[in-house]
From TrEMBL:
Ranges where the HIG1 domain occurs: 1-67
Membrane found in the keyword field: yes
Regions crossing the membrane: 6-25, 45-63
Organism: Sediminimonas qiaohouensis
Name listed for the protein in its UniProt record: Twin transmembrane helix small protein
Cross-referenced InterPro entries: Hypoxia_induced_domain
Keywords for the protein's UniProt record, in alphabetical order: Membrane, Transmembrane, Transmembrane helix
Length: 67
């Protein structure tokens, strides 16, 4: 599995989702101007990154099964 470069792409995509989510949650917890200014944008980025990560995971599974 670690020989497959798509595995690393999937891992980076999942890490990007986690980072975006943590920044969004941190901004929400802190509140203030940052949250008002960036909360919706961060959650949109999270949804897009999550969609890309799911597609990559499905591709990874498909290729590993011999698709």
């Amino acid at each position: 599995m670690r020989d497959d470069p798509l595995f690393y792409v999937v891992a980076v995509a999942c890490l990007a989702v986690v980072v975006i989510l943590m920044v969004g949650i941190g901004g929400f917890a802190k509140g203030g101007e940052f949250n008002r200014k960036h909360a919706n944008r961060l959650m949109r980025w999270r949804i897009i990154a999550q969609f890309i990560a799911v597609i990559l995971i499905l591709l990874f599974v498909w290729f590993r099964r011999g698709g």
